[in-house]
Write a structure and sequence with these properties.
By secondary structure, this protein is of the alpha/beta class. It has seven helices and six strands; from the N terminus they run E-E-H-H-H-E-H-E-H-E-H-E-H. Strand 1 (about 1-5) and strand 2 (about 10-20) form a beta hairpin. Helix 2 (about 30-45) packs across helix 3 (about 105-120) and helix 4 crosses helix 5.
Amino acid sequence: MEINVLNIAGKETGRKIELNDAIFGIEPNDHAIYLDVKQYLANQRQGTHKSKQRNEVSGSTRKLKKQKGTGTARAGSIKSPLFRGGGRVFGPVPRDYSFKLNKKLKQLARKSALTYKARTNAIYVLEDFSLETPRTKEYINILKNLNLVDKKSILVLSEPNKNIYLSSRNLQKQKVATASNLNTYEIVDSSALVLVESSVDVLHKMFQVL
């Protein structure tokens, strides 16, 4: 599919760029997207949760009362989970939530997410630009020109740009990423995808589509 290239003023430059159908026009696989997003969110979890079991709680191990004749249930220790301040039964323990996915499945997920964005006309191609100094106001003006200031969007660069990154860092709904680090969750989570012109070539090379 072809898409118009815009400048930072939001006007058409008169040029068009080809978005390869092998990336932006495939048959989407919803389950692949689900698995990739699930893995991304699982990898964000620290897994450091912990509660004390009865062998870790501070307290005496003295038998509280005699075994029989009290008319109540037998009790052996104040650290029993049945008592206030006792250990917890089957409580959380530190664990690693990450799991493995095949590279081909992750590629399919990203291409499926990009296809959905292309189908809903949520992809914008912006000619390459740079900012001389980090200025959030200038970045907001670019978003206003594209009518994206109130939408959650992600700007995809071909290579890291410190000034652009710092200009967008303070904006809650905006994110800047490089094409090589673009993941399925970021694509799905955004309302609009803004690709700079040079990042399209990086995406083509990344998915080995020339």
